[in-house]
Design brief:
The protein is an alpha/beta fold. The chain has 10 helices and 12 strands.
Length: 248
């Protein structure tokens, strides 16, 4: 089973080590291209607009310029958003941390794919950015990421946002998790609460040694772990949708 996560915009302020470690060496060439393009952009006046930064975030440009020699930290400690707060990798048992490193793949606009134990420096770049000269980053990464992930087997639990889901789709072996809020008998799609719920679902799936092989197995497993879920119908060539329902 693979669990796909987006990164978070919030990141730790600085790294603690000179060691840099990246899984998926097949991605080293596109990583270098994106890094070089990002640094070149950050040397120009257009950087703040292209990266979608406010005046108060101008320091992110200097951070990007320092990436080649910046100190690193584990991916498990790098991302600090709501999803990662609820996943709380640091508080997992040793066995669950090992499972997390095998099961979780984080999509990154700069590094392509990351494992929780990989070590990289803090950076600022979203998959939604059109980075000169490659343009749309999801489209740029799609062939390289596809070559890596198409070769894997097993169920794919997709907890990514749409921006990062555009970089690769798992097809029929995927299950896209959607979070719905139920209030007064009505269900609505939520955003902020969805991040917290996705983090909680990911934590459940690395805490358990069980390995669901089908979408039905996943729905049964999450139900047994205390989540309220409903599995949508199968669609040819497309992931199934698994709704996680949370009370208001």
């Amino acid at each position: 089973m693979l669990i796909l996560l987006p990164p978070s915009e919030g990141k730790a302020e600085r790294g603690t080590s000179a060691v840099r470690r990246l899984s998926f060496p097949e991605l080293d060439s596109p990583r270098e291209k994106v890094l070089d393009a990002l640094i070149a952009l950050c040397r120009t006046p257009a950087a703040r607009e292209v990266l979608g930064l406010s005046e108060g975030q101008a320091g992110e440009i200097e951070r990007n310029l320092a990436l080649p020699t910046a100190r690193t930290l584990p991916v498990a400690a790098l991302y600090t958003g709501v999803l990662y707060d609820n996943l709380s990798l640091a508080t997992l048992s040793p066995e669950a941390r090992r499972r997390a490193d095998r099961r979780i793949i984080v999509f990154s606009a700069l590094w392509g794919l990351l494992r929780p134990s990989d070590r990289v420096p803090p950076y600022r770049l979203s998959m939604g950015v059109r980075l000169p000269p490659m343009g749309n980053l999801a489209a740029f990464w799609r062939p390289a990421i596809g070559a890596v992930l198409d070769a894997t087997k097993g169920l794919v639990v997709d907890l990514r946002s749409a921006t990062y889901a555009a970089a690769w789709q798992p097809g029929e072996r995927g299950v896209a998790v959607r979070v719905l809020r139920e209030a007064a008998g009505k269900r609505t799609v939520v955003s902020h609460m969805a991040k917290a719920t996705r983090g909680a679902v990911a934590r459940s799936l690395v805490e358990t040694p069980d390995r669901p092989r089908t979408a039905g197995d996943l729905a049964d497993l999450l139900t047994g772990l205390g989540h309220r879920v409903e599995l949508g119908p199968a669609g040819r060539g497309k992931p199934r949708v698994l709704d996680v329902i949370v009370a208001d």
